[in-house]
Amino acid sequence: MRTDDRFDVVVIGAGAGGCCAAARTAAAGLRTLLIDDHAWLGGRAGTEVIDGHRVNMGAIALEPGGVFEETFRLAGAELEIREPNPATVFYLDRKVVNVQKGGLGLLLGGLTKQASKVLDQFAQARSGSLPDGRESTEDWLKRYTSNATVHAIFRNLCAAIFAMNADEIPARAFLTYFTSKGAFKRFGFHPRGTGGAWEELAAAVERLGGEVWLEAPAVELEIEGGAIRAVLIAREGETVRVPAASVIFNGGPRALAGLAGAHLSPDYVRRAREVLKPAANIVYNFASREEIMPAPGIMTFGRTATGRLCNMANLSAACPEIAPEGWHQYVAYAVPRPAIGDFDSQAEVENGLTDLREQFPGFDDKVKMLSVRVMRDDWPAQRSGAGYDMEQETGVTGLWCVGDAVKSYGNGGTQACAETARIAVDRILAERRQTAPA
Length: 438
Fold this sequence. Notes:
By secondary structure, the protein is of the alpha/beta class. The chain has helices spanning 16-27, 66-75, 103-109, 115-126, 137-142, 148-162, 171-180, 195-207, 252-260, 266-274, 315-318, 345-359, 363-366, 413-435; strands at 2-3, 9-12, 32-35, 47-50, 53-56, 88-92, 95-97, 211-213, 218-224, 227-235, 238-243, 246-249, 281-288, 298-301, 309-314, 328-334, 367-375, 399-401. Helix 1 (16-27) packs parallel to helix 8 (195-207) and helix 1 (16-27) packs parallel to helix 14. The longest helix has 23 residues, at 413-435.
């Protein structure tokens, strides 16, 4: 076994949370090693090239501002986000409904006489009056309206943002996101695919004196006396022991329990198994010669044939270089029923395709399917659905979790992952200041 003792911090997992954490530790002057067991950066938000198309594996939307953009600024990394205008529309009965100026109120007002009751609940949520966390979004909405289209819209908002059905996400988490967490007020796409953002952060880590090792999985955590001591990494046919007083883990508490369960408390391991609820979705990447989506950003659907298809994005409208010349490129998302339980992948993939065919007549003849990816189990859309997260602390000194299973209540998206990275790094830096010699 070879020992490499050049690093202050090891970040395990180069997904959104890991890349943000590594960039922040490197920017703070800590010698940082970022590792991942895959050959690409970004994890479930990575990008691959298929037939000349830059195809996102999962997440697509990047949010300017907030902690996410702050991370790039601290690391001196370029962040290119192209924001479509309008950013979001709804697609009801094959017609585009643009509520950019009037918001959700304008949309609901045209669908149900009970719109004011629903909107009043949003107003109460903004002032801090929220459901207790046990009531689902679907049950909460039923108290104010029975309109089927309104229920379909809310279900598809839950599905698009959280990869959960409306009967699976607590109303408290849904309302928290929409009233205090930003709710994707601004977002855009990267011209090199979402992976382009992580490439910039990884380059910044290296420029700041750190290193990035891909195809280098952590095989063991060395923990003694309740504190992290080192990470054992499989790299290029050998095992490398990297001593580090601080380790940031971006694989989620369940994966951490599988890697280091003997050193974690039985309660932590139990909660990783029972509390977390991985959420699934199905990602359809496709392209066409003629433009089939009548909007430049993200389009949320109303009622569909099977009720699985939730939204769709027109990537090449803002980022034409993502596709070969002459092609329009899209991604659509469907969420299975259930999303946080077992389901038939093949049947649910077909359900999503049925909805696409219904919404776009002649779909099969018009498009070239690039990939269909079922995000579930150990590779889910969300490592835990909103409202079912664990804490970032692991009970082991110097070992922290980041990512979408330890986000703050009701949060989501790249901002949520970036926020977990900031919290972990700030605590690491505070600990180091306390232990530094006078």
